[in-house]
Design goal:
heterodimer, A: alpha/beta, Rossmann fold, four-stranded parallel sheet, three-stranded antiparallel sheet, elongated, B: alpha/beta, TIM Barrel, eight-stranded parallel beta barrel, 8 strands
């Protein structure tokens, strides 16, 4: 999921200070799980804004904030509240914010969160980055562990000299990605393969921004 | 004789390093190069070592050549993408630089520009392959070039890495990618190094053991606690302590010289690489003590 983090409230107020009436949109997917865009957070921000002398015309948790058409349909019943607001606050990720920008061309739309990374929830509201969306997955060759993401240098062919008793020199609290890969490949009896495979330089054209993908057309092909 | 020929001749090879400085006043560097002239088989020029911004390796290699030293261009993948790396390699080639040491490079967080974007477009194994390609007249995209390079390419290895197995797998990949020689991380335990060499000897490559002179027991403890892949045995720390503060550096140099002699006499490896780290003037002293002059 996309991991998001609330912006510092004072910083948020600096950004939106010029507006007075807000409509809040959360998201039931990632942002709810991150504790940045669910019902409780909408309630909390509504109260905080009121305490600053602002008004809140309404708010709701979109099912999937980045799903533009679905969100548009959901927003229909909030037409009056949205119209009366002079600013929409998006409590999800950068994609959610830009979905609203697309829907409301003439209205101010501001993010309340910083979008961090694509991650896994390992414990309640504890998130680790596991995938960099590099466009060409190579973890079939590395025992299912991504070195592009979990090695700070993104090394593809083994550990650097900074591996310190199995831990990473750059982030000492995490295990060296290549030690993890080695151990897993050993358990799977795939060490021979690990020794013999040199992974080629990545094709970064696969990650050329901005990316798009039309699954429907692919299916037709 | 070129570094390549000396390596192949079977002579016990000695290299050291010059660390370019931050800033343009290079009087001291000229002095160090004069001191090392005629004594070494080649001199490594580090590439923004420890991710600290300094004069580029390429320029200092050229200066080293003007002093009659044969340079080994250290190239890390931290600061340049594959276009810049290959371009610098071609530049090095036309300047007459014959040797390149391919490494991944310390992360920017280790250095003095911590907010810089680390590149790592490719890494050491892939850089070795790229050099091999350039030597065969082709760039990384397979384009034919007007004139190939003729580099002797080397790599680094950490014989005391823990765990050692993933490091040895990478060592094998580097050999396969074209590494002809290796310079190791600093070693202090000859018996453990012998163990590593039993593995390394299975491959057709030359290995130069790395040395960093211990200046004090405190430095030894610092290395043990802070530098991955370096293990100074307690017996050496005790030896430095016993020597007292004033004689510690002298003792550290004696230890290095003793180890170098043993490696040479027992033909454990093909040579040594002395990393003086700011004490370039001590390199000839150590070489003298080790009977290399």
């Amino acid at each position: 999921m996309i991991i998001s983090k609330k912006k510092d409230f004072r910083h948020l107020m600096d950004n939106i200070g010029r507006y007075n009436n807000f409509f809040l949109i959360g998201c039931s997917e990632c942002a709810s799980l991150c504790g940045t865009g669910g019902e409780p957070e909408i309630k909390e921000l509504t109260e905080a804004l009121k305490a600053q002398g602002k008004s809140v015309s309404g708010g709701f948790v979109a099912k999937t904030g980045c799903q533009v058409l679905g969100t548009k349909v959901e927003l229909k019943k909030f037409k009056n509240e949205v119209d009366s607001a002079d600013c929409i606050l998006i409590m999800s990720c950068g994609a959610g914010t830009q979905a609203a920008v697309e829907l409301y061309e003439d209205k101010a739309v501001y993010p309340t969160n910083d979008s961090l990374f694509l991650g896994n929830m390992t414990r309640f509201q504890m998130f680790d980055e596991r995938c960099s969306l590099c466009g060409e997955c190579i973890i079939d060759m590395t025992g299912g562990i991504c070195p592009v993401t979990t090695c700070p240098k993104g090394l593809l062919n083994g550990p650097c000299g900074g591996c310190n008793d199995g831990n990473c020199e750059v982030s000492p609290d995490i295990k060296c990605a290549w030690v993890k890969i080695y151990e897993r490949m050993k358990r799977l009896d795939r060490l021979q393969e690990l020794c013999e495979t040199t992974i080629e330089a990545k094709d970064w054209s696969k990650a050329q921004k901005p990316r798009n993908h039309y699954a429907k057309e692919e299916k037709k092909k | 004789m070129s570094f390549r020929d000396i390596l192949n001749s079977g002579k016990f090879v000695v290299t050291a390093e010059v660390g370019p400085q931050k800033g343009t006043d290079i009087k001291e560097m000229h002095h160090h190069m004069e001191l090392l002239k005629g004594k070494l088989d080649a001199v490594n020029v580090t590439d923004n070592q420890s991710a600290v911004m300094r004069i580029c390796s390429l320029a200092v290699c050229k200066i080293a050549m003007e002093h009659g030293l044969e340079p080994i261009l250290q190239m890390t993948c931290r600061d340049r993408n594959r276009i810049a790396l290959q371009s610098d390699l071609l530049g090095a080639s036309v300047l007459g630089i014959k040797n390149v040491l391919c490494m991944t490079g310390d992360h920017v967080t280790a250095g003095d520009h911590k907010s810089a974007k680390p590149v790592y477009d490719i890494e050491s194994v892939q850089l070795l392959k790229a050099v091999d390609g350039l030597n065969n007249g082709r760039d990384m995209s397979g384009n034919e070039m007007k004139g190939p390079t003729d580099f002797l390419q080397g790599a680094v290895v950490t014989p005391e890495a823990n765990p050692i197995e993933p490091q040895l797998i990478k060592f094998g990949k580097k050999v396969k990618a074209g590494a002809k020689f290796f310079q190791t991380q600093a070693i202090y335990d000859i018996d453990k190094f012998k163990e590593f060499m039993r593995h390394a000897r299975k491959f057709p490559v030359k290995v130069l053991a790395g040395f960093v002179v211990l200046k004090s027991a405190g430095m030894a403890n610092f290395l043990n606690n802070n530098v991955p892949g370096i293990r100074v045995p307690q017996s050496l720390i005790d030896e430095l302590k016993a020597a007292g503060k004033e004689k510690a550096l002298e003792t550290g140099m004696d230890i290095t010289a003793r180890h170098i002699r043993q490696l040479k006499e027992e033909k454990i490896c093909d040579g040594v690489h002395i990393m003086a780290i700011g004490m370039e003037d001590k390199v000839p002293v150590i070489m003298g003590k080790a009977g290399l002059l």
